[in-house]
Amino acid sequence: MFSIVGPGISITKLLRLGPRLTLEETEKLRAGTGAIYVYGTIRYEDAFKKPRLTKYRLMHHQMGGAIGVSTELTFTEDGNQAD
User: For the residues of 5-71, what is the DSSP string, one character each?
Assistant: First the structure.
């Protein structure tokens, strides 16, 4: 997928993943003993035709809202790079 994104514009991507979490997995998230990590890479060309690379790591855990209701992800302290 290719898109042109101007300054200050953000894009949101909604993904549905399966299978559903088990009761045990949900309880670990609620207890703060588990988390879901999402890793990704974005490759793009900037306005000056220079290739760029961004690597990110996000997580879903009890601080992101009600487990089983919220689907928010937050950036982790480590695992994020951009050139």
Answer: --TT---------SSPPPHHHHHHHHHTS--EEEEEEEEEE-TTS-EEEEEEEEEE-GGGSSTTT--
| 72 is a domain residue | yes
Is position 60 within any domain? yes
> Whole-angstrom Cα distance, residue 29 to residue 59?
11
Predicted confidence (pLDDT) per residue in 37-69, tens digit: 889 998 888 889 999 999 999 888 766 666 666
Tokens read off for 56: 């990110």
Provide the number of structural domains found in the chain: 1
